[in-house]
Amino acid sequence: MDVSKDMVRILFIQLLIAFCLPNLVLAQDVVGMRSDSIKILMSRTYPEYILNTTNVNKSYNYLKYEDFLGTQTILLFLSDSNTCRYVKRMCSYSLLDKVIDQLNTKYEQLNDTLWTFNDGENQMTKQLEKEDWFFTVVTKIQQ
């Protein structure tokens, strides 16, 4: 009996790792997408993120997604026409090395905290910002 319980635990942990860790950096950047398309993309591609509508700041037009592990929050800031202007991904420091590795692999690194890429229409940046309790990756059109 103990062996089967351990096997179930191991399988559960492997599933968590398989579904959560690969998605530390959005595979598809959403800047420029409309909010309805973002909601469809998130529900189909990133089901581990839940749209949080309980704590909404009425001063901003945004979508807030949280992962079920509580290690990541994604804020997608929208224009008045509900098009994504920029993205803030807040992560637990336990994910820092993995996120930096993924940024280094996928994008051109300009310095220790800045990466650049072209999304097919715009030159984009990903800026790493370290806070006291978490770090943030901001994705936006390069100025």
Structural class of the helix and strand makeup? alpha+beta
Strand portion: 25-35%
The biggest sheet, with number of strands, parallel, antiparallel or mixed sense and barrel status, is:
8 strands, antiparallel
Based on CA atoms alone, the radius of gyration comes out at 17 Å
Shape: globular
Taking pLDDT < 50 over at least 5 consecutive residues as the criterion, the unreliable ranges are: 6-22
Major β-sheet strand ordering: 1-2-3-4-8-7-6-5
Integer count of domains: 1
Output the helix-strand order.
Answer: HHEEEEHEEEE
**N- to C-terminal distance:** 60 Å
So how many helices?
A: 3
Compute the number of strand runs: 8
Residue-averaged pLDDT: 84
Helix content: 25-40%
Describe the structure.
The protein has 143 residues and is α+β, with helices and mostly antiparallel strands. The chain has one domain. Helices cover 29% and strands 34% of the residues. It contains 3 helices and 8 strands. The protein has an 8-stranded antiparallel beta sheet with strand order 1-2-3-4-8-7-6-5, with helices on one face. The radius of gyration is 17 Å and the shape is globular.
Q: What topology emerges from the helices and strands here?
A:
Blueprint: H1 2-20, H2 35-45, E1 49-51, E2 62-67, E3 72-78, E4 84-91, H3 96-106, E5 108-111, E6 114-118, E7 123-130, E8 135-141
Antiparallel strand pairs: 1-2, 2-3, 3-4, 4-8, 5-6, 6-7, 7-8
